[in-house]
Amino acid sequence: MTNDLLAALVPALPLVGAIILASLRRKLSANVAGGLATAMIAGAFVCSILLFQGFDAATGGRTVKLLDWISIGSMEIPLALRIDALSLTMMLIVTGIGSLIHLYSIGYMHDDERAPTFFAQLNLFSFAMLMLVMGSNFLITFIGWEGVGLCSYLLIGFWYKTPEYNYAARKAFVMNRIGDVGMVLAMVLLFQRFGTLEYATIMNVASGVNDPLMIAATLFLFIGATGKSAQLPLFTWLPDAMAGPTPVSALIHAATMVTAGIFLIVRSSVLFELAPFTQDIILWIGTATALLAASIGLFQNDIKKVLAYSTVSQLGYMFVALGLGSYSAAMFHVTTHAFFKALLFLGAGSVIHALGGEQDIRKMGGLKGHIKITFITFFIGTIAISGLPLMSGFFSKDLIMAFAFQRSPVLFALLLIGALMTTFYMFRLLFLVFYGKYRGNAHPHESPLTMTIPLMVLAVLSVVGGLLNLPHLFGGHEAMKHFLATAADGIRFEHLELSHATEWILMGITTMLVCVMIYIAYGRFAQKATLEGNEADMPFFKRLIAQRWRFDELYRALFEKPYGWLSTNLFSIAEQKVMVPIMNGVGEAAISLGNVVRKVQTGNASFHLLAMLVGLIAFLIITLMSN
Amino acid sequence: MEEGIITAIRVVPLDHYVLLSFLLFSIGAAGVVFRRNTIIILMCIEMMFNSVNLLLAAFSAHHSDPRAQVFVFFIMLVAAAEVTVGLSILVMMKRNVDSVDVNQLNRLKG
Amino acid sequence: MIAALLLLIPFISALVLVIARPAQARPIALVSSLASLAVVLYAWISYTGGTVIHYDLDWVNDWGLRFKVGYDGVGLLMLILTGVVFPFIVATGYGQQHDRPATFNALLLFTQAFLYGVFLAQNALLFYINYELTLIPVFFILLYWGGENRRAITVRFFIYTLLGGLALLFGIVYLLVQNGGNGDFTALASLSIPASTQVWLFWALFLAFAIKLPIFPFHSWQPETYYMAPLQGTMVLGAVLLKMGLYGVYKLVFPIVPAGVEYWQTTVIVLALIGAVYGGVIAFRQSDLKRLVAFSSLSHVGVLCAGLFALNAYGVSGSFYQAFAHAILVLGMFYIVGAMQERMGTSDMSVMGGLKGQAPRLAALFLLVLINAIALPLTQSFVGEWLMFAGLWQVDGWLAFFALTTIVIGAIYMLYAYQRVMLGPDRTNVTLADASTRDHLYLVPLIAVTLILGVYPGPILELLDAPVQQLLSSLSVH
After folding, report:
1. What pLDDT sits at residue A1?
2. Is residue A237 part of a domain?
């Protein structure tokens, strides 16, 4: 019972926080609002920890029913929460990292007059994200799914006076919505097939079912996941989403919301195991996204954009893991990525804060002396994402690479290229920002403690995060995998059967090449700061990559412009030139008919009386005749 | 009704009454339709009423059924009311269009 | 008693209003509409299921007209909707400057009385009479209080809807003749009409409702009329009048010509969905907020009608649930339009932009209304749309897919409209008042209803469950 209450409290606390903050947003100061918001999410974190401690993985999981939601006919969809290994993992990530980012935001948003609104939205986001991961059925997850979309929209467009930001916000929401179409289709299909949307029931019934419908269902789910997790072809919103305040980028667009797609697939892993076709598609989409985004990252000059493309790329890795059927590896990477990417974003925020809003890395440089804590933590984040040995990213990425090698060496090679590009652009970023001479004209200053404490905590996590799922190779026993296996049945199908020698060799190759990349990057960017010039002067191929493979332009030409054209012309031609005249025609036909018949109404009283008389006589005759 | 009057009515055959009231009614109807003076139209309507009354009274006497005579009184009453309304319309008409020609009232022309 | 009160309260109040002083008009109308809301809520509380018949009196029996009034769950939902919506519509008047407010409010209350008549009627002819009677007060509202070009548009609207009514009358008369002059719905439902007849009879009965809803391609009267109508008139049209079409289909089409429905089902769904997409796409580039909302309503109604014709438990109940949600949405949306008109003197969005800076509360309220429009989960619309999508999927996956495109299309035009009005740099040069207490008093209850029924739709779904099941099982017998 107490556990049920705790479970309900986890999403309820941030929701209450959001409501209080939203209603008192004009009366609270930034610090009070931030404190309250942080307290709420930290409270949720404490509840999550308590739940985690009281959780017995052997039981598999528990459903906490709050109330009946939609129940009609044979449709029973309760508002219920599911507490199992998977949701607990996600809850801990969301509330834990969420607390740190809330804390960080107190410092970051200190001067913003709309800070209380910001915190209200941040809390609302946490609520939605928690609903997403805790839902006991697809529809509850969908509440969170759409809720985080809304909050993402609000927070990207938080500084609403800039039209580009609003455009980015709308773009994010609409692209997510396109994915949601897939998600809803999947839900109606699954409901039709299984008569319920409860995860537990569906996954129980589904295992062993051989049904071509599963391919459709999983493909639809995957479409939903591509929208939320910014995969090809729906990835272009995520880099634009960097318009939001940096803590938002860290929380929503790196650590939590964008991993919702991965969560969803792990949640329904049983279904995906039944549809190898879908798994292949996921695998190749993930690979393509990982490489494409990493290549774009090489030439970006906006500190947040580099990190954004890096996020897209890392999400690609997670999808590769899902495509390979190694769900625990994906979840492991979700976790470590949450640590180091949140760290990197918050570090970037700290840099931006230090430079008074500057985001262009060409105007940075030499900052390591000015903002030491930020530098050290950012450095840790960089080596973690690059996968230097014993860092958290090393273990998680390596696990995915090992699975990839098991499938095919080509895949391994592709992922390795991606990893090397990651290393290159991350160290390029690091060197251009912190090494060399300062190229801007602001006065860098270290951020306040509320901002640096989260950085330090996350730095520690980025280093030791690998211990969560330490492989046998290093004397661990894959704790996270075994824990998650109690909840996501798909994990039972994972088999990594490489010999230890092969693993050692793969690791060695990867590490060596990564070090080579770092050395090259050091030479180019730390020693002499090679800055990219004007895009127009670049050779064609390089320019194409620097212009993000021109995806935005492509989509604009393919969808946005035609849609606008269609909207204008449907109205001016179809509606006004066709539909309205047809309707007017009906009216005019009635009027002209009236014009004919009205002649009878002469207005002459005698005539009417005569007509009446004739009529009467006619009726009389008819009556008499018929008798 | 007194016995004597009834006998007196019965002296004339029913056909004659019918014929007479038919003639009266037709004259009234023709007047209503063809005359333009509203006063005459009202009088013609009155004539039509009375032709019907006559017929009712005659049938009543011939069939020894007093119910028809009740109707006669009703009709007289309604006719009185009708004349009141009709004449007031007439007065308004005279005031407004300064004429009693019924063809002046052709605002309903479609 | 309930039926009598529902019919008499608005009717008598309307008569009182005719002799009332202008200053008393709105308070009287408001009290009257609140009183009838109380009656409706009482009816809801005391409702225990089944079809409740309040009166079954002889009227003109020879023609099949009986004064038979009552309701089942669906009818009750429609009564609740009418009861809830009218206090809001009357209250909107407090922000408007009207010529002759007494007459105006009297016409509103007459409309309400006839609407109750429509939703209470258990006799086809009684239904028809009330259905057509609603047109008369609305006609005068549009004609005397409408905007630019009102004469032509009103007459067009009137003729067009009347034309549908004519077909309906023909259909009803045909049914009466077939049924030996018994016009009760229950009697008509047990009539067995040959399938070939049902195929054409379907359109005789459905045309009026197709125009009233409206579905594509009978919709052209709607955007112009909504645009031209006075704010409260638009609310009446959008929030309740079109729901008569939905209810009419449920009451008069489904049970009586099931074979005809089966024959035309796909056609109607496709037409409705074309309208849904068509309206939504057009809405995107509209420069006038009021017209945009009109087209968005067209889009929503398309989905509504498609869901209804899915003709399964989820589709039909989802459609009626959504009908309620849509009414609340229409009130909120048009109230916002009115609030903008009041402040800017126009509903043209090209002169707006960046208003959030001056009116943050109004922007927040707009956003909260808007999330219902785009059917975010935990709002009322989501429950309805989810059920309709589930229902449409059972008919055909592609239909569900096309219905679902509207959630993308809706997000596109709604967020774009929000941006054009509220976001960006402040482009206006007027000083703007933020949302007043009156605005809050009006919108906050609407938003509360939206959210409460989004989280806890049970009470209303309960109303729908039994009658819809009953309808469907009676259809499967045929």
Report:
1. 55
2. no
Q: State the residue range of the domain holding A595.
A: 553-626
Residue A571, chain C, CB below 8 Å: the answer is yes
Q: What is the pLDDT of residues C128-160, one digit of tens each?
A: 999 999 999 999 999 988 888 888 888 888 888
Cis peptide, bond prior to residue A11, ω within 30 of zero: no
Plot region of A454 (φ>0 → left; ψ -120 to 50 → alpha; else → beta): alpha
pLDDT of A491 higher than 80: no
Residue A579 CB partners (closer than 8 Å, separation 6+): C217, C219, C220
Tell me the C-alpha distance between C147 and C425, whole Å: 31
Chains C and B touch (3+ CB pairs under 8 A): no
Rg of chain B over CA atoms, in angstroms?
18
User: Under an 8 Å CB criterion, which residues of A touch B?
Assistant: 597-606, 609-610, 613
Contact in structure between A342 and A251 (CB atoms under 8 Å): yes
Which pair of structure tokens corresponds to residue A550? 């021109």
In this structure, is residue A564 part of a structural domain? yes
State chain A's mean pLDDT as an integer. Answer: 88
CA distance to A19, A203, C133, C236, per residue, from C126 (Å): 49, 53, 11, 21
pLDDT tens profile A361-407: 888 878 888 888 889 999 999 999 988 888 888 888 888 988 999 88
Question: What pLDDT, on a 0 to 100 scale, did the predictor assign at position A500?
Answer: 83
User: CA distances (Å), A248 to each of A126, A148, A360, in order?
Assistant: 11, 12, 19
Separation in Å, CA C391 to CA A188, C304, C462? 9, 11, 17
DSSP A65: E
On chain C, the residues whose CB falls within 8 A of the CB of A178 are 408
Q: Which residues on neighbouring strands pair with residue C52, listed in sequence order?
A: C71
Amino acid at C218: F
- Is A77 inside a domain boundary? no
Mean pLDDT of A196-220: 85
The token pair that represents C165 in the structure block: 């009514």
Residues of B in contact with A613 (CB under 8 A): 29, 33
Task: Enter the tokens of residue A17.
Answer: 């926080």
Query: Does A447 reside within a domain?
Result: no
Mutation site for A-interface testing, chosen from C419, C422, C460 by largest number of A Cβ within 10 Å: C419
Q: Which chains contact B through at least 3 pairs of Cβ atoms less than 8 Å apart?
A: A
Do residues A340 and A317 make contact, with C-beta atoms less than 8 angstroms apart?
no
Q: Which of residues 30-89 of B touch A (CB under 8 A)?
A: 32-36
Distance in angstroms (rounded) separating the CA atoms of residues C386 and C390: 6
Do residues A306 and A244 make contact, with C-beta atoms less than 8 angstroms apart? no
Gap from A143 CA to chain C (nearest CA, Å): 5
Chain C residues closer than 8 Å to A179 by CB? none
The count of other CB atoms within 10 Å of the CB of residue C360 is 18
- Domains in chain B with CATH codes: 3-99 (1.10.287.3510)
d(CA A626, CA A619): 11
Provide the number of structural domains found in chain A: 1
Identify any residues that bridge with C288 across adjacent strands, giving them in sequence order: C348
Q: Residue A129 to residues A12, A125, A181, A258, B73: CA-CA distances in angstroms?
A: 12, 6, 19, 10, 89
The answer to whether A255 and A41 have CB atoms below 8 angstroms apart is no
Closest Cα partner for C232 from C162, C352, C140? C140
With beta carbons under 8 A apart, name residues in chain A contacting C390.
75, 188, 191-192
pLDDT band at A252 (very low <50, low <70, confident <90, very high): confident
* Contact criterion met (CB below 8 Å) for A463 and A388: no
